[in-house]
Amino acid sequence: MLQAPPSIAVDRRQVTMPSRAWYGDIDLTLDFPATWDIHTLAMKDAPAIDAAGIEAAFANPIGTPPIHELARGRKSATIVVDDVSRPTPASKLIPYVLRELARAGVPKSEIRFVVGGGSHRAQTQEEFEKKLGAEIVQAYAVKSHNFMAGDLKGIGSLDDGTPLFFDPWVVDADFKMTIGGIYPHGAVGFGGGSKLILPGVSGFATMFHFHTFYPSRGQANIERTGDVPDHRDASEAAARALGLDLVVNMVINSRREPAAVFVGDFVQAQRAGARFALDTYGTSIPESLQSKTDLVVVNAYPLDSDPIQTGKALWCRSFFPNARFVVVNPAVDGICYHGLFDRIDWKRYSAQLAAREAIADPEPRLDGDGQMLIWSEHYPAHDFPRKHPNDLLVRKWETVLELLQPTLPERATVAVFPSSGLQVLART
Fold first, then answer.
1. 3-state secondary structure (DSSP) of residue 349
2. Distance CA 217, CA 421 (A)
3. What range does the domain containing 418 cover?
4. Which pLDDT tens digit goes with each residue over 154-207?
5. Total domain count for the chain?
6. Are residues 275 and 289 in the same domain?
7. E strands within 133-227?
Protein backbone atom coordinates (compact mmCIF):
# COMPACT_ATOMS: atom_id res chain seq x y z
CA MET A 1 0.00 0.00 0.00
CA LEU A 2 1.26 3.46 -0.92
CA GLN A 3 2.36 5.59 1.99
CA ALA A 4 1.42 9.24 1.64
CA PRO A 5 4.56 11.40 1.55
CA PRO A 6 4.92 14.39 3.86
CA SER A 7 3.83 17.73 2.45
CA ILE A 8 7.35 19.12 2.61
CA ALA A 9 10.65 17.27 2.65
CA VAL A 10 14.14 18.74 2.43
CA ASP A 11 16.78 17.04 0.30
CA ARG A 12 20.03 18.75 -0.55
CA ARG A 13 21.09 16.56 -3.45
CA GLN A 14 18.48 14.53 -5.28
CA VAL A 15 14.75 14.41 -5.88
CA THR A 16 12.99 11.31 -7.20
CA MET A 17 9.63 11.68 -8.92
CA PRO A 18 7.40 9.60 -11.21
CA SER A 19 7.62 10.17 -14.96
CA ARG A 20 6.43 8.93 -18.37
CA ALA A 21 2.77 8.08 -17.78
CA TRP A 22 1.72 5.26 -20.13
CA TYR A 23 5.34 4.96 -21.29
CA GLY A 24 6.91 3.11 -18.40
CA ASP A 25 5.76 5.08 -15.34
CA ILE A 26 9.36 5.14 -14.19
CA ASP A 27 11.03 6.82 -11.23
CA LEU A 28 13.09 9.78 -12.40
CA THR A 29 15.89 11.07 -10.16
CA LEU A 30 17.12 14.63 -10.64
CA ASP A 31 20.51 15.71 -9.34
CA PHE A 32 20.97 19.23 -7.99
CA PRO A 33 24.09 21.06 -6.82
CA ALA A 34 24.90 20.10 -3.25
CA THR A 35 24.67 23.71 -2.05
CA TRP A 36 21.08 24.20 -3.26
CA ASP A 37 18.29 23.98 -0.69
CA ILE A 38 15.68 21.66 -2.24
CA HIS A 39 12.09 21.64 -0.94
CA THR A 40 9.81 18.94 -2.35
CA LEU A 41 6.18 20.04 -2.16
CA ALA A 42 4.10 16.90 -2.57
CA MET A 43 0.35 16.56 -2.62
CA LYS A 44 -1.47 15.00 0.33
CA ASP A 45 -2.00 11.77 -1.69
CA ALA A 46 -3.95 8.60 -0.89
CA PRO A 47 -3.33 4.85 -0.92
CA ALA A 48 -4.53 2.66 -3.77
CA ILE A 49 -8.08 1.38 -3.39
CA ASP A 50 -8.37 -2.38 -3.05
CA ALA A 51 -10.78 -4.77 -4.82
CA ALA A 52 -13.23 -4.62 -1.92
CA GLY A 53 -13.35 -0.83 -2.19
CA ILE A 54 -14.07 -0.99 -5.91
CA GLU A 55 -16.79 -3.60 -5.35
CA ALA A 56 -18.40 -1.33 -2.76
CA ALA A 57 -18.41 1.63 -5.18
CA PHE A 58 -20.26 -0.40 -7.81
CA ALA A 59 -22.66 -1.89 -5.26
CA ASN A 60 -23.54 1.52 -3.78
CA PRO A 61 -23.71 4.08 -6.60
CA ILE A 62 -24.38 7.75 -5.89
CA GLY A 63 -27.78 8.97 -7.01
CA THR A 64 -28.69 6.00 -9.25
CA PRO A 65 -29.51 2.32 -8.96
CA PRO A 66 -26.61 -0.10 -9.61
CA ILE A 67 -25.62 -0.59 -13.24
CA HIS A 68 -27.20 -4.05 -13.41
CA GLU A 69 -30.55 -2.55 -12.45
CA LEU A 70 -30.27 0.62 -14.51
CA ALA A 71 -29.27 -1.28 -17.68
CA ARG A 72 -31.81 -4.11 -17.34
CA GLY A 73 -33.83 -4.48 -20.53
CA ARG A 74 -31.43 -2.35 -22.61
CA LYS A 75 -30.50 -3.94 -25.91
CA SER A 76 -27.15 -2.18 -26.43
CA ALA A 77 -24.56 -0.19 -24.51
CA THR A 78 -21.77 2.23 -25.39
CA ILE A 79 -19.02 2.94 -22.89
CA VAL A 80 -17.07 6.18 -23.43
CA VAL A 81 -13.51 6.17 -22.04
CA ASP A 82 -10.97 8.99 -21.85
CA ASP A 83 -7.86 8.82 -24.06
CA VAL A 84 -4.16 8.46 -23.22
CA SER A 85 -3.74 12.21 -22.76
CA ARG A 86 -5.45 11.45 -19.44
CA PRO A 87 -3.71 9.13 -16.96
CA THR A 88 -6.82 7.13 -15.99
CA PRO A 89 -6.09 3.35 -15.81
CA ALA A 90 -9.57 2.51 -17.11
CA SER A 91 -8.69 -1.13 -17.73
CA LYS A 92 -8.79 -1.71 -13.96
CA LEU A 93 -12.50 -0.83 -13.84
CA ILE A 94 -13.81 -2.19 -17.14
CA PRO A 95 -14.19 -5.80 -15.87
CA TYR A 96 -16.52 -4.58 -13.11
CA VAL A 97 -18.61 -2.65 -15.66
CA LEU A 98 -18.86 -5.60 -18.03
CA ARG A 99 -19.90 -7.89 -15.20
CA GLU A 100 -22.70 -5.47 -14.32
CA LEU A 101 -23.86 -5.23 -17.94
CA ALA A 102 -23.83 -9.02 -18.29
CA ARG A 103 -25.93 -9.28 -15.13
CA ALA A 104 -28.36 -6.78 -16.68
CA GLY A 105 -28.68 -8.98 -19.75
CA VAL A 106 -27.08 -6.60 -22.28
CA PRO A 107 -25.74 -8.81 -25.12
CA LYS A 108 -21.94 -8.85 -25.28
CA SER A 109 -22.13 -8.39 -29.06
CA GLU A 110 -23.98 -5.09 -28.53
CA ILE A 111 -21.46 -3.50 -26.15
CA ARG A 112 -19.12 -0.94 -27.74
CA PHE A 113 -16.29 1.27 -26.53
CA VAL A 114 -15.61 4.79 -27.79
CA VAL A 115 -12.46 6.64 -26.76
CA GLY A 116 -13.87 10.11 -26.21
CA GLY A 117 -10.88 12.33 -26.81
CA GLY A 118 -12.87 15.34 -27.98
CA SER A 119 -10.84 16.84 -30.81
CA HIS A 120 -7.68 14.95 -29.87
CA ARG A 121 -6.04 12.56 -32.28
CA ALA A 122 -7.10 8.98 -32.93
CA GLN A 123 -5.57 6.31 -30.70
CA THR A 124 -3.19 3.66 -31.98
CA GLN A 125 -3.81 -0.05 -31.49
CA GLU A 126 -1.19 -0.07 -28.73
CA GLU A 127 -2.89 2.86 -26.99
CA PHE A 128 -6.30 1.16 -27.16
CA GLU A 129 -4.73 -1.83 -25.44
CA LYS A 130 -3.03 0.30 -22.78
CA LYS A 131 -6.22 2.16 -21.96
CA LEU A 132 -8.80 -0.63 -22.26
CA GLY A 133 -6.79 -3.84 -21.95
CA ALA A 134 -5.70 -6.08 -24.82
CA GLU A 135 -8.42 -8.65 -24.17
CA ILE A 136 -11.14 -5.98 -24.36
CA VAL A 137 -9.82 -4.64 -27.65
CA GLN A 138 -9.88 -8.14 -29.10
CA ALA A 139 -13.36 -9.02 -27.86
CA TYR A 140 -15.36 -5.79 -28.37
CA ALA A 141 -15.97 -3.12 -30.98
CA VAL A 142 -13.65 -0.20 -30.20
CA LYS A 143 -13.00 3.12 -31.94
CA SER A 144 -11.76 6.66 -31.41
CA HIS A 145 -14.29 9.46 -31.68
CA ASN A 146 -13.79 11.63 -34.77
CA PHE A 147 -15.08 15.13 -34.10
CA MET A 148 -15.11 15.95 -37.84
CA ALA A 149 -16.75 12.73 -39.04
CA GLY A 150 -19.59 12.97 -41.56
CA ASP A 151 -21.86 10.61 -39.63
CA LEU A 152 -22.22 12.62 -36.43
CA LYS A 153 -25.81 12.81 -35.28
CA GLY A 154 -27.61 16.00 -34.31
CA ILE A 155 -30.13 15.90 -31.48
CA GLY A 156 -31.13 19.57 -31.41
CA SER A 157 -29.70 22.49 -29.45
CA LEU A 158 -29.40 23.77 -25.91
CA ASP A 159 -31.59 26.72 -24.94
CA ASP A 160 -28.74 29.13 -25.61
CA GLY A 161 -28.29 27.83 -29.17
CA THR A 162 -25.40 25.42 -28.65
CA PRO A 163 -25.82 22.85 -31.45
CA LEU A 164 -25.64 19.25 -30.21
CA PHE A 165 -23.83 16.79 -32.48
CA PHE A 166 -22.48 13.53 -31.07
CA ASP A 167 -20.80 10.30 -32.05
CA PRO A 168 -23.41 7.93 -33.54
CA TRP A 169 -22.26 4.96 -31.44
CA VAL A 170 -23.23 6.96 -28.37
CA VAL A 171 -26.46 8.45 -29.71
CA ASP A 172 -27.75 5.07 -30.91
CA ALA A 173 -26.94 3.10 -27.75
CA ASP A 174 -29.76 2.13 -25.40
CA PHE A 175 -27.45 2.52 -22.42
CA LYS A 176 -24.83 5.28 -22.29
CA MET A 177 -22.07 5.51 -19.69
CA THR A 178 -18.52 6.80 -19.25
CA ILE A 179 -15.33 5.74 -17.50
CA GLY A 180 -12.93 8.59 -16.79
CA GLY A 181 -10.73 10.39 -14.31
CA ILE A 182 -11.31 13.45 -12.15
CA TYR A 183 -8.45 15.94 -12.59
CA PRO A 184 -8.07 19.66 -11.86
CA HIS A 185 -9.04 21.61 -14.95
CA GLY A 186 -9.00 25.32 -15.71
CA ALA A 187 -12.29 25.42 -17.61
CA VAL A 188 -14.55 23.09 -15.64
CA GLY A 189 -12.91 23.11 -12.20
CA PHE A 190 -12.52 19.34 -12.20
CA GLY A 191 -12.97 16.91 -15.05
CA GLY A 192 -15.08 13.78 -14.91
CA GLY A 193 -18.87 13.71 -14.89
CA SER A 194 -20.31 14.92 -18.17
CA LYS A 195 -17.02 16.01 -19.73
CA LEU A 196 -16.61 12.79 -21.71
CA ILE A 197 -19.83 13.75 -23.51
CA LEU A 198 -19.02 17.42 -24.08
CA PRO A 199 -16.38 17.74 -25.35
CA GLY A 200 -15.50 14.00 -25.31
CA VAL A 201 -17.78 12.66 -28.07
CA SER A 202 -19.08 15.94 -29.49
CA GLY A 203 -18.78 17.34 -33.00
CA PHE A 204 -16.79 20.38 -34.08
CA ALA A 205 -19.73 22.81 -33.97
CA THR A 206 -20.69 21.71 -30.45
CA MET A 207 -17.14 21.93 -29.13
CA PHE A 208 -16.46 25.27 -30.81
CA HIS A 209 -19.51 26.80 -29.14
CA PHE A 210 -18.56 25.20 -25.81
CA HIS A 211 -14.96 26.44 -25.82
CA THR A 212 -15.69 29.86 -27.30
CA PHE A 213 -18.87 31.13 -25.65
CA TYR A 214 -18.80 29.83 -22.08
CA PRO A 215 -16.67 31.32 -19.27
CA SER A 216 -14.31 29.11 -17.30
CA ARG A 217 -15.06 27.89 -13.81
CA GLY A 218 -11.38 28.03 -12.85
CA GLN A 219 -9.06 25.29 -11.69
CA ALA A 220 -10.36 23.07 -8.86
CA ASN A 221 -13.56 25.09 -8.26
CA ILE A 222 -16.31 22.59 -7.53
CA GLU A 223 -19.43 24.76 -7.30
CA ARG A 224 -20.43 27.59 -9.60
CA THR A 225 -20.55 31.10 -8.18
CA GLY A 226 -22.87 33.69 -9.69
CA ASP A 227 -25.70 33.34 -12.19
CA VAL A 228 -23.80 33.08 -15.49
CA PRO A 229 -23.61 29.49 -16.85
CA ASP A 230 -20.07 28.26 -17.34
CA HIS A 231 -18.33 25.37 -19.09
CA ARG A 232 -19.49 22.64 -16.73
CA ASP A 233 -23.11 23.81 -16.76
CA ALA A 234 -23.12 23.52 -20.55
CA SER A 235 -21.45 20.12 -20.47
CA GLU A 236 -24.00 18.79 -17.99
CA ALA A 237 -26.91 20.19 -20.01
CA ALA A 238 -25.57 18.46 -23.12
CA ALA A 239 -25.18 15.14 -21.29
CA ARG A 240 -28.71 15.44 -19.98
CA ALA A 241 -30.06 16.11 -23.48
CA LEU A 242 -28.17 13.10 -24.83
CA GLY A 243 -29.43 10.83 -22.06
CA LEU A 244 -26.20 9.89 -20.29
CA ASP A 245 -27.23 7.17 -17.84
CA LEU A 246 -24.28 6.89 -15.49
CA VAL A 247 -20.59 7.58 -14.94
CA VAL A 248 -17.74 5.66 -13.41
CA ASN A 249 -15.21 8.24 -12.21
CA MET A 250 -11.81 7.60 -10.70
CA VAL A 251 -9.46 9.68 -8.58
CA ILE A 252 -5.87 8.50 -8.88
CA ASN A 253 -2.92 8.92 -6.54
CA SER A 254 0.58 10.19 -7.26
CA ARG A 255 1.61 6.77 -8.62
CA ARG A 256 -1.29 6.68 -11.12
CA GLU A 257 -3.15 4.05 -9.12
CA PRO A 258 -6.92 4.21 -8.50
CA ALA A 259 -7.37 5.83 -5.08
CA ALA A 260 -11.17 6.09 -5.12
CA VAL A 261 -14.03 5.18 -7.46
CA PHE A 262 -17.31 7.09 -7.80
CA VAL A 263 -20.17 5.39 -9.64
CA GLY A 264 -23.56 6.91 -10.33
CA ASP A 265 -25.31 10.08 -11.47
CA PHE A 266 -23.04 12.21 -13.63
CA VAL A 267 -23.56 15.27 -11.43
CA GLN A 268 -23.72 13.78 -7.95
CA ALA A 269 -20.93 11.21 -8.42
CA GLN A 270 -18.67 13.81 -10.03
CA ARG A 271 -19.19 16.26 -7.16
CA ALA A 272 -18.36 13.58 -4.58
CA GLY A 273 -15.27 12.60 -6.57
CA ALA A 274 -14.19 16.22 -6.97
CA ARG A 275 -14.35 16.77 -3.21
CA PHE A 276 -12.18 13.68 -2.66
CA ALA A 277 -9.80 14.88 -5.39
CA LEU A 278 -9.56 18.34 -3.86
CA ASP A 279 -8.35 16.78 -0.62
CA THR A 280 -6.10 14.14 -2.23
CA TYR A 281 -4.42 16.53 -4.66
CA GLY A 282 -4.17 19.31 -2.08
CA THR A 283 -0.71 20.82 -1.64
CA SER A 284 0.37 23.36 0.97
CA ILE A 285 2.84 26.07 0.00
CA PRO A 286 4.34 27.82 3.04
CA GLU A 287 4.16 31.57 2.65
CA SER A 288 7.72 31.83 3.93
CA LEU A 289 8.93 29.81 0.94
CA GLN A 290 7.15 31.76 -1.78
CA SER A 291 9.15 34.98 -1.75
CA LYS A 292 12.58 33.44 -1.22
CA THR A 293 12.39 30.68 -3.85
CA ASP A 294 14.85 31.16 -6.71
CA LEU A 295 13.84 28.19 -8.85
CA VAL A 296 10.66 26.12 -9.25
CA VAL A 297 10.78 22.70 -10.92
CA VAL A 298 7.39 21.33 -11.94
CA ASN A 299 6.90 17.77 -13.08
CA ALA A 300 4.01 17.48 -15.55
CA TYR A 301 3.35 13.86 -14.51
CA PRO A 302 0.89 12.23 -14.77
CA LEU A 303 -0.22 14.52 -17.61
CA ASP A 304 3.15 14.15 -19.32
CA SER A 305 2.45 11.87 -22.26
CA ASP A 306 2.05 14.68 -24.79
CA PRO A 307 3.28 18.27 -25.23
CA ILE A 308 -0.18 19.86 -25.19
CA GLN A 309 -0.71 19.15 -21.49
CA THR A 310 2.35 21.17 -20.35
CA GLY A 311 0.32 24.17 -19.21
CA LYS A 312 -1.62 22.08 -16.69
CA ALA A 313 1.55 21.74 -14.62
CA LEU A 314 1.95 25.49 -14.18
CA TRP A 315 -0.78 26.59 -11.80
CA CYS A 316 1.90 27.35 -9.23
CA ARG A 317 3.43 30.23 -11.24
CA SER A 318 1.45 32.90 -9.40
CA PHE A 319 2.78 31.67 -6.04
CA PHE A 320 6.45 32.34 -6.89
CA PRO A 321 6.81 35.81 -8.44
CA ASN A 322 10.62 35.93 -8.18
CA ALA A 323 11.52 32.44 -9.37
CA ARG A 324 12.68 30.87 -12.58
CA PHE A 325 10.67 27.89 -13.78
CA VAL A 326 11.68 24.54 -15.20
CA VAL A 327 9.04 22.15 -16.56
CA VAL A 328 9.75 18.42 -16.78
CA ASN A 329 7.64 16.88 -19.54
CA PRO A 330 9.11 14.00 -21.57
CA ALA A 331 6.12 14.24 -23.96
CA VAL A 332 6.84 10.76 -25.32
CA ASP A 333 3.84 11.07 -27.64
CA GLY A 334 5.72 13.87 -29.40
CA ILE A 335 2.67 15.20 -31.26
CA CYS A 336 1.32 18.74 -30.88
CA TYR A 337 -2.19 18.19 -32.21
CA HIS A 338 -5.41 19.60 -30.81
CA GLY A 339 -7.78 19.50 -33.76
CA LEU A 340 -10.26 22.07 -32.50
CA PHE A 341 -7.67 24.84 -32.25
CA ASP A 342 -5.73 23.67 -35.30
CA ARG A 343 -9.03 23.47 -37.21
CA ILE A 344 -7.74 20.47 -39.08
CA ASP A 345 -8.66 16.81 -39.03
CA TRP A 346 -6.20 14.17 -37.85
CA LYS A 347 -5.76 12.58 -41.30
CA ARG A 348 -4.70 15.84 -42.92
CA TYR A 349 -2.49 16.77 -39.98
CA SER A 350 -0.79 13.37 -40.15
CA ALA A 351 -0.02 13.92 -43.84
CA GLN A 352 1.51 17.33 -43.09
CA LEU A 353 3.50 15.84 -40.23
CA ALA A 354 4.93 13.11 -42.45
CA ALA A 355 5.90 15.60 -45.14
CA ARG A 356 7.83 18.10 -43.07
CA GLU A 357 11.59 17.88 -42.85
CA ALA A 358 13.45 17.40 -39.61
CA ILE A 359 15.01 20.51 -38.09
CA ALA A 360 17.79 20.89 -35.57
CA ASP A 361 17.05 21.95 -32.02
CA PRO A 362 17.74 25.65 -31.42
CA GLU A 363 20.84 26.55 -29.44
CA PRO A 364 19.68 26.82 -25.80
CA ARG A 365 20.39 30.32 -24.49
CA LEU A 366 18.88 31.99 -21.47
CA ASP A 367 17.95 35.62 -21.79
CA GLY A 368 14.92 37.07 -19.98
CA ASP A 369 14.08 36.40 -16.34
CA GLY A 370 10.58 35.24 -17.29
CA GLN A 371 11.84 32.62 -19.69
CA MET A 372 10.87 29.07 -18.77
CA LEU A 373 13.03 26.05 -19.47
CA ILE A 374 11.12 23.02 -20.69
CA TRP A 375 13.13 19.84 -20.37
CA SER A 376 11.65 17.39 -22.83
CA GLU A 377 13.11 14.46 -24.66
CA HIS A 378 10.40 14.33 -27.32
CA TYR A 379 8.79 17.78 -27.66
CA PRO A 380 8.96 18.46 -31.44
CA ALA A 381 11.33 21.29 -32.29
CA HIS A 382 8.96 22.32 -35.11
CA ASP A 383 6.06 22.94 -32.76
CA PHE A 384 7.81 24.30 -29.70
CA PRO A 385 8.04 27.98 -30.82
CA ARG A 386 4.34 27.99 -31.67
CA LYS A 387 3.34 26.85 -28.19
CA HIS A 388 6.17 28.48 -26.20
CA PRO A 389 7.47 31.45 -28.21
CA ASN A 390 9.42 32.97 -25.30
CA ASP A 391 10.68 29.79 -23.65
CA LEU A 392 13.60 27.43 -24.04
CA LEU A 393 13.54 23.79 -25.12
CA VAL A 394 16.27 21.70 -23.48
CA ARG A 395 16.96 18.03 -24.13
CA LYS A 396 19.26 17.11 -21.22
CA TRP A 397 19.03 17.75 -17.50
CA GLU A 398 22.74 18.49 -17.41
CA THR A 399 22.14 21.34 -19.87
CA VAL A 400 19.38 22.71 -17.63
CA LEU A 401 21.83 22.93 -14.73
CA GLU A 402 24.59 24.42 -16.89
CA LEU A 403 22.23 27.18 -18.00
CA LEU A 404 20.80 27.86 -14.56
CA GLN A 405 23.80 27.79 -12.23
CA PRO A 406 25.36 31.07 -13.42
CA THR A 407 22.03 32.86 -12.95
CA LEU A 408 21.17 31.60 -9.45
CA PRO A 409 22.69 32.16 -6.01
CA GLU A 410 25.23 29.61 -4.81
CA ARG A 411 22.76 28.58 -2.12
CA ALA A 412 19.66 28.77 -4.27
CA THR A 413 16.28 27.85 -2.79
CA VAL A 414 14.41 25.40 -5.00
CA ALA A 415 10.77 24.25 -4.82
CA VAL A 416 9.91 20.98 -6.59
CA PHE A 417 6.36 19.84 -7.42
CA PRO A 418 6.63 16.11 -8.17
CA SER A 419 3.08 15.61 -9.56
CA SER A 420 2.27 19.11 -10.71
CA GLY A 421 -0.24 17.96 -13.31
CA LEU A 422 -2.52 16.96 -10.43
CA GLN A 423 -1.62 19.26 -7.58
CA VAL A 424 -4.12 21.78 -6.20
CA LEU A 425 -2.28 24.52 -4.35
CA ALA A 426 -3.01 26.54 -1.22
CA ARG A 427 -0.97 29.04 0.76
CA THR A 428 -0.21 28.20 4.40
1. helix
2. 18
3. 8-44+283-427
4. 999 999 999 999 999 999 999 999 999 999 998 899 999 999 999 999 999 999
5. 2
6. no
7. 141-144, 153-157, 163-166, 175-181, 184-185, 189-190
